[in-house]
């Protein structure tokens, strides 16, 4: 074992921006985002893959950032909670809202209290609704089964998932009605 | 909760990976999906000096459906295997079982081959490999070899892979025509480690069972296949005789398994549970068999 650890230049695209930092091989992706890139929206709970707070999207698919090394994330596209709102991505916010449908739903339905687990829920649910835009109550529960919340008792989180599906559909309808967001 | 320092190797080919594994010997560990390995590293239950990260290795992410078997490469994520329509058509058990592996976020990263090489008694895919009479393909600088599932699992979390070998793929054997499968497990929270689980394959010809086998999750130290032929063969799925045979099968399973007690459940509870799960999966496979007629 060496005293000075070798540093690796890691380049990833985070929320559409290419970012590079020199880090040791053992740097977890979660710590890379928080410490090296100063994106502290991703929260670190259990650090062994149980709680889901650190969930980010890797090439659009939710993954535990505490169970990946930054060096393994090279050349991948990462979306963190910071990338969900104020989106320039027309699929997320076709009419230019600053909160994504999932964020708005969590706010409307009181889907959080302390907010520690929320970034993991938001990323997980965002990806889930892409796959299944009209979940049932049962499916919504299943979708969030990998994320722990110690405040809410989950009832309002389930409501938020269902409401997020509605908001997504509403926004898509509005965008279509206004000619895809083109000025009238 | 941070891993100890290690040297990161990023081979691009199987040959390079095998060469590195040969050089680093006992100080090395293969990193694929890392969904079991990284928690172990984070908690410093292990501190290998070298990690051989195979995520950049070419040609390991294929699912190939052949006449005899479904071959799954070492970089196929659980989610990809569950999604594969070709694999589902050839061997529905793969999707039935894979959807019980942890949570979606874990399935998106974790690999099927990695989970088999990890050999956790609570793992679903080692049990599935056994039920499918599967084979592990291993490569080292010394050559390639195939290891049948019976020779692969040496104990809990222990396999007969040599320290310099890379498991490049596994082959799940396909079943004869008329075979129906089902898989169920019970956990405190969906996606958590199962208290007990069971998969079955039931082959029906001319309306009666000709072959039946089961394998288990969390109630045996190593994957173990129980031949249920002696109690189920000759019965017609769904008939009165079938009901009696299923009772006998559940009893055979309770006699076969050797569950351990822990904080989550006692040995007796797990034994009772796996018997009940056996009853349910057998009835599910019977329903599928009746649907065939």
From TrEMBL, chain A:
Annotated SUPFAM superfamilies: 2Fe-2S ferredoxin-like, CO dehydrogenase ISP C-domain like
One Pfam family linked to the record: Fer2
Pathway it works in: Alkaloid degradation; nicotine degradation
Entry keyword Iron-sulfur: yes
Alphabetical list of PROSITE patterns matching this protein: 2FE2S_FER_1, 2FE2S_FER_2
Keywords for this protein: 2Fe-2S, Iron, Iron-sulfur, Metal-binding, Oxidoreductase
Claim: Oxidoreductase is one of the keywords in the record: yes
Molecular function via GO: 2 iron, 2 sulfur cluster binding; metal ion binding; oxidoreductase activity
Domain 2Fe-2S ferredoxin-type: 8-84
Protein name, entry field: Carbon-monoxide dehydrogenase small subunit
Native species: Humibacillus xanthopallidus
TrEMBL record, chain B:
Organism superkingdom: Bacteria
Key words, A-Z: FAD, Flavoprotein, Oxidoreductase
GO molecular function list: FAD binding; oxidoreductase activity
Residue stretches making up the FAD-binding PCMH-type domain: 1-177
Gene3D superfamilies: 3.30.465.10, CO dehydrogenase flavoprotein, C-terminal domain, Uridine Diphospho-n-acetylenolpyruvylglucosamine Reductase, domain 2
SMART domains: CO_deh_flav_C (SM01092)
Record Pfam families: CO_deh_flav_C, FAD_binding_5
InterPro entries, per database record: CO_DH_flav_C (IPR005107), CO_DH_flav_C_dom_sf (IPR036683), Diverse_Substr_Oxidored (IPR051312), FAD-bd_PCMH (IPR016166), FAD-bd_PCMH-like_sf (IPR036318), FAD-bd_PCMH_sub1 (IPR016167), FAD-bd_PCMH_sub2 (IPR016169), Mopterin_DH_FAD-bd (IPR002346)
Protein name: Carbon-monoxide dehydrogenase medium subunit
Organism lineage string: Bacteria, Bacillati, Actinomycetota, Actinomycetes, Micrococcales
